[in-house]
Automatic annotation (TrEMBL):
Record-given protein name: ATP-grasp domain-containing protein
Domain ATP-grasp: 71-333
Lineage: Bacteria, Candidatus Vogeliibacteriota
Species per Swiss-Prot/TrEMBL record: Candidatus Vogelbacteria bacterium RIFOXYD1_FULL_51_18
Keywords noted in UniProt: ATP-binding, Ligase, Nucleotide-binding
SUPFAM superfamilies membership: Glutathione synthetase ATP-binding domain-like
Length: 337
């Protein structure tokens, strides 16, 4: 049997490394290395699977995994979600659930009513997979069909301006914050975008970051097309070219540490949202039309994550690894209580 691709190789290794600091130990199941057991010095056991720790309640975690359900409850409590967010189903699933008018064609009519460009994404996806900014009918149907090959529910929503930030909350404290910047290259006036991308990939490999840039990714080609560029274009020196619309680190995005600059009001907001959604550990993603160091003005809650994976973040350097180890040490202390 072909070995299943490992979703996370970082959490187990980090827990095994830091657990002894509080007199605990972490045991990984050796074949698949995706589940583990933490034994605290009291003798109590706790478990984890992939990036999900035995910390958040099951019901709240399941709601957080479903973007539409999470949006419903966040909106009901007065949090500003991305405008126009609405789910639609694959044709097969629309029939199965008795909602034939919520199919891909209905989704297109709705998107046209919102006004292009709009964002489409899988309702239960992660790591930015199949998230697309689409500008017309052809792009819309292509992106939606790609989503429906992975998920039976898609989310259609307006595109909003701003910077993408993730705040990681543990109980009543923001323990990490960083800005997420989409995959990009900086022109040197000599190299093509394809050559610059290859160099970026070499930098990822040198940093032991397992992100693999797909040079033939249609999403990259589409993003470049809307900038009147191609992989053969040579950007001017000092010109930054963005190659994807999502800012996930898993798709080649960069992170900028922001923990020390978060405005107290944003910290309070993230902590309150986490508690209101019934969670203890949560990654709260904001789109902020401004800066996170300023008092909240125009912003939206992009989504929440009850199992905020930090695999790609930790591989960005020694400083990031130290931040993540300290973060998970705090998590273990809270789990021990």
């Amino acid at each position: 049997m072909k070995k299943r691709k490992k979703e996370s190789l970082i959490l187990g290794a980090i827990l095994q490394n830091i657990a002894p600091r509080i007199g605990a130990r972490a045991l990984m199941e050796p074949r698949w290395e995706i589940v583990g057991q933490i034994t605290f010095k009291s003798g109590r056991h706790s478990y984890f699977r992939y990036n999900t720790l035995d910390l958040n309640p099951l019901g709240a975690s399941e709601i957080a995994r479903d973007k539409d359900y999470a949006n419903f409850f966040m909106s009901a409590m007065g949090y500003p979600i991305i405008p126009g967010s609405k789910t639609f189903f694959s044709n097969r699933w629309a029939k199965a659930v008795g909602s034939p008018r919520r199919n891909i064609d209905a989704a297109y009519r709705y998107a046209r009513g919102l006004g292009f460009p709009i964002i489409v994404k899988p309702n239960s996806g992660s790591q930015g997979v199949c998230v697309a900014l689409v500008h017309n009918k052809r792009e819309f149907y292509s992106a939606m069909r790609a989503i429906f090959r992975r998920d039976r529910v898609a989310l259609v929503q307006q595109s909003v301006p701003g910077k993408d930030y993730r705040l990681v909350v543990l109980d009543r404290k923001v323990i990490s914050a960083y800005e997420r910047i989409p995959l990009n290259v900086m022109g040197d006036g000599r190299s093509t975008i394809k050559q610059l991308l290859k160099r970026k990939q070499e930098q990822f490999i040198a940093a032991s970051r397992d992100t693999r840039i797909r040079m033939d990714d249609p999403a990259i080609a589409l993003k470049l097309k809307h900038q009147k560029l191609s992989v053969r274009s040579v950007p001017a020196k000092g010109t930054r070219v963005y190659l994807l619309d999502n800012a996930n680190l898993s798709t080649g995005g960069d992170s900028v540490e922001a923990t020390g600059k978060v405005h107290p009001a944003f910290k309070s907001l993230a902590v309150k949202l986490t508690r209101d959604m019934g969670l203890r550990l949560c990654g709260v993603d904001f789109i902020i039309d401004g800066d996170i160091s300023a008092k909240p003005a125009t912003y939206w809650v992009l989504e929440i994550n009850a199992a905020p994976g930090l695999d790609y973040y930790v591989r960005m350097g020694k400083a990031q690894r130290k931040i993540v180890e300290d973060l998970y040490l705090e998590v273990l202390k809270h789990m021990e209580r």
